[in-house]
Amino acid sequence: MSALALAGPVLAEIPSPATGVWHLGPVPLRAYALCILAGIAVAIVVTDRRWRARGGLPGQVADVALWAVPFGIVGGRLYHVLSSPDAYFGAGGDPVRALFIWQGGLGIWGAVALGAVGAWIGCRRSGMRFSAFADALAPGLLLAQAVGRLGNWFNQELFGRPTDLPWGLAIDPAHRPAGFADVGAFHPTFLYEALWNVVAAAVLVWADRRWRLGHGRVFWGYVVLYTLGRGWIETLRVDPAEQVLGLRLNVWTSLGVGVVGLVGLLYARRGREAEVLLAPHPDAATAAAAAGSAGARPADPPRP
Predict the structure, then answer these.
(1) CB under 8 Å to 14, separation ≥6 — which residues?
(2) I want to staple 134 with a disulfide (CB 3.0 to 4.6 A). Which of 11, 24, 66, 219 is the partner?
(3) How far apart are CA 119 and CA 147, in angstroms?
(4) Tens of pLDDT along 238-292?
């Protein structure tokens, strides 16, 4: 029997986890929440490295995260609830469930928008240039989104239309939308988006190193790349969603946000900020000396 024939059954479909909750005594450990927390940790680590390579100071990224993360979670939940109101305020809905973030449902559009407000506040309090911080953040944000998408896998949500491709995702009957009770495998759109985010992060790091981007251009590149992938992936999904002119609301959001990102990318200043701090900081000289002794200028792009 050929190796391909042996591999056939293995690649028949991607299984979904049997459970997304484990109990440590009376305390439930939810996979969705753990994936979100892991994504946040990845973003902080990657952003801190990129920020210090640009001339920032150790600890500043964590200080900003204390503002950006809570704002982002609230913004993500608000967008999800407002864009899918029937489950909470429609017939048979339960408004209290709007508070149950651990059950899934964080819209990236609201998370980035309100998270940016929190990041701006954190940057002002820490004496950091917001545009420089946004550029340092962009690749790590994409990686955080990729890790967070694994939470949708555990929750058996955000999958696409039926497929017979070898990487189709098996969905339990209880999680299948109406009209698809007899379908077993669906497009794993959570996985498509996760992979797209990883590739987009690599592209941003490469472009940043190649052209020494600054003044928000890395972040605007993130917006353009993410919305390109998200807009296409949204067309594959079959879960209930608000429709506008025959298209899912998130498709229109992707188009609108993508246009804003393209305009920002085209009109942002060329080059990179000479200083990433708003005012001289007593620790800046120490940070610059440490970066120089490591064989890299503070403004050098990060190593992969």
Answers:
(1) 167, 168, 169, 170, 188, 191
(2) 219
(3) 21
(4) 887 888 898 998 999 999 999 999 999 999 999 999 999 987 665 555 555 554 5
Number of H-type helices and E-type strands within the chain: 10, 6
Q: What is the 3-state secondary structure (H, E, C) of 194-252?
A: HHHHHHHHHHHHHHHHHHCCCCCHHHHHHHHHHHHHHHHHHCCECCCCCEECCEEHHHH
- Under 8 Å CB-to-CB from 207, ≥6 apart: which residues? 213, 218, 221
Mean pLDDT of the chain: 87
Instruction: Report whether 143 contacts 42 (CB < 8 A).
Output: yes
Q: What is the CA radius of gyration of the chain?
A: 21
Asked if residue 20 belongs to a domain, the reply is: no
DSSP state of 167: T
Q: How far apart are CA 90 and CA 95, in angstroms?
A: 9
Contact (CB, 8 A) for 163 and 215: no
Please give the pLDDT value at position 37: 94
Query: Would 119 be classed as within a structural domain?
Result: yes
Q: Give the residue numbers spanning the domain of 254.
A: 29-271
pLDDT of residue 301 exceeding 50, the answer is no
When divided into structural domains, the chain yields a total of 1
Residue 128's φ and ψ, nearest 5 degrees, are -115, 145
In sequence order, the 6+-apart residues with CB closer than 8 A to the CB of 282 are none
Q: Are 111 and 71 contacting, i.e. CB atoms less than 8 angstroms apart? A: no
Q: Please write the tens of the pLDDT for every residue from 229-242.
A: 999 999 999 887 88
Task: Look at residue 135 and tell me if it is in a domain.
Answer: yes
Work out the end-to-end distance of the chain between its first and last CA atoms, rounded to an integer number of angstroms: 42
CA angle 181, 182, 187 (to 5 degrees): 85
Could you tell me if residue 39 is inside a domain? yes
